[in-house]
Design brief:
- The chain is an alpha/beta fold and 399 residues long.
- It folds into 2 domains: 185 residues, 3-Layer(aba) Sandwich (Rossmann fold), CATH 3.40.50; 127 residues, Rossmann fold (3-Layer(aba) Sandwich).
- The chain is built from 13 helices and 14 strands.
- Strand 11 and strand 12 form a beta hairpin.
- The longest helix has 25 residues.
Length: 399
Amino acid sequence: MICIARSLRGFRSRILAAPVVALAMLAGGSLAPAMAQDVVKIGIPIGLSGANSVVAPSVVQAAKLAVSQINAKGGILGKKVELDVADDGSGADGAVKAFNSLILEKNVNAIITMETSAARNAGLPIVSRAKVPFIYTSSYEGRSCNRFLFVDAWVPEQQVPPIVDYFQKVKGAKTFFLVGSDYAFGRGMLAFTRKYIEAHGGKVVGEEYLPMDASDWTPVLSKLRAAHPDALISSTAGGAPNVTLTKQLRGAGIKVLFGNLGIDEGTAKAIGADATGTYMSQSYLTTLDNPQNAAFKAGLKQMFGADMKTPNDLSEPEYDGIYLYKAAVEKAGSLDPFAVVRELPKVSFLGARGLITMDKEHHAPLTMYLGQVTADGSVRVIQSFPHVDPGDQCPKFKS
């Protein structure tokens, strides 16, 4: 279906272009200006509805800020940058529609987005057939490998150890209960977490999953209460499931160390007082003290004013991702997808999280921060871990 659509589109383009070609030749002019693309189109398939709807607006704002700044300085290769945003519904079916629309109808030059693993996995075959660079800016369960896919956010090897080590070594936790959304991210993150806990002398006394769109955690919390663990670690889809789980956990009065692998700073603030005390491990926090973070937050405030969403570890990588794409295109000197993906592992961008380079098998080493949500919704940094390697993710792309 996709190949037929692309062939028809190419045939239609040739027919429509014929008069332009003829006129250019009769005038003795150059064909190149008439055929040249004067814009760079970046597609953002994202969960404006569904589980990711809580965090998606902050991601779109970060993208708009990056594009506004780039255009103010001449664009990319002198071309204006445009964004096309499509709702993927936070799931696979919506992603197929969104990717098809952006790639086959809107003819975007690249996909740069945060979305659920279900959406990413559904979109990747379309990316592969169309040969479009794809920068995935969402933390995820790891080991998604594709010639056109690059990741500038964390994987389990970078995020899980800070929380588990702190619970075991500092808080004395020996038993753990794991709760997740029943899809690739939830199960992938907790599979790594279980293995890490057990390798370091801990014991998992329960592991439960609910569908990604579930909102009633009562059965899971009943099992959690009966198991009496020292610590709870959750891996739910970013956004709405974090809100419902956290509020119901606190409402049930269960006292347990709580580490959340799927929460971000913006969602923590949306949860309110019930998020207080939750532990998280992130590559970006609004409290990071560096000039790039100050400029990032100031830019968002100036652009969006009272409508500004809390920047977080799911939105800041989107900002970085667009600048990384810009660097790769300019290094390649072309929008050609093959040239761009050759350069993506070689370029870097100094953003609010520090210097980001996707050179480790299409993934990025990251400085990670262990934090705890305070009563006012901000996150107190407990420990930092510089330049954490993502580990073996895609050996065939080893540089």
